[in-house]
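Supplementary Note 3. Input sequence used for the single-chain structure prediction.
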Amino acid sequence: MRHTCPHCRQPSLPGRSVRGSSRGAPCTCPHCARLSHVLASTSGGIVGLTVFGLVLAIVAGTVWSSVVLAAGLVLLVACVNRLMWRRVELWPISREAARRSARVSLLAFLR
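The predicted structure, written as discrete structure tokens, is reproduced below.
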């Protein structure tokens, strides 16, 4: 699955690099060499919903003593996670803003 670059509108960004992108570590388009990232609120929301769904699947499987139910719900959560990452929107970012954001995150981490 390739995502569309917000700069050149080419489907060139691999899903793996999009999932790991942030303001401090944006993904680079192979066609135009410009940077883009996923908003932190979007990626955090996807991770939060996935963890919530997994916990809910395990609890439901335990309550009803059904491994099949738990496995089915985990599979459903995995499919929904994949669908959410396919529909995520990329935002353009300049190289200077990405550099500044990486520096700020490093300073905040070291504090």
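The beta strands are 2-4, 11-14, 27-28, 35-38, 90-93. The two ends are 38 Å apart (CA to CA).
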